Amino acid sequence: MANFFRNTWIFIKGIYQRAERAALGNIVNRSTDLYEHAKAKLIFDYAFYYTMALIPVTVLAIVTSNEVNLIVIPFLVGMLFICLVLLRNGVSAKVVGALTSLTTLVMPILSSFFNNQDISPKYATIWIVSILFCYITANLLTAVLWSTIIVAYLALVAYIKLNGISLYVSSGFSNSYLYISNPIVITVYLLFIIRSMGMYYQNVISMERKRTQQQQKQQLSLIHQHLTKQFMLVKGFSRSGRTAFQNGELELLEACFTEIEKQCGIAINYLDESSEQKHNGENYTEV
User: Domain tally for the chain?
Assistant: First the structure.
């Protein structure tokens, strides 16, 4: 059994890596914005792992002969594939993120509506995640607009239930299906959320750390250039001071000492800046 799960994980990981290269291969070359890269990676992870999460949901739909879900799920997967194609073809992460979140919002709404207006946790979870995903990849305004869709649907469900309106219910829906599917689907969705959203924040932290380290390298290089300049000046003033001392030119000698002291002070300031930059970088790395 352990080998089975191990081989399954290796197989899924191989598919993931190949799909990631296919979907995100050109993004690094198109943009140098690390945050844009992180959002694109999140969109891919979200689409890929949500598709994986739909596999047990599909099996459950087949077992229960839930006709609505068997229609909605393939369409949902197809839309996610289209979103990844758009991302690969250069469409901005903001647009693709908005479309992806709308897809994972509306399709479950359709499934919920035709499954006796089911608003149990298995639907509520993906709706909330879709809104959060939209906020991260698109913007606050789009997330608010998508939220109004959920609120409007919940209001519609409340109206239908309160007035006892009878509507079409998918053949596979039943109370037993509701009770059995909730723990299964919620477990899958939680794993999906941990993997996609958790990796996003890890990627952001990693990219920010790389950016900070790059800034530190640039700062240290600049400080090295300044120090080299200061030491060359000190060396020149030292030679001038030695010549002035040999010739008995005390005023020139004093001026050389003054300049040497000044340049040493500037060099010390540069060294202090270097130490401060290094200290800040170490603190960020620890975080």
Answer: 2
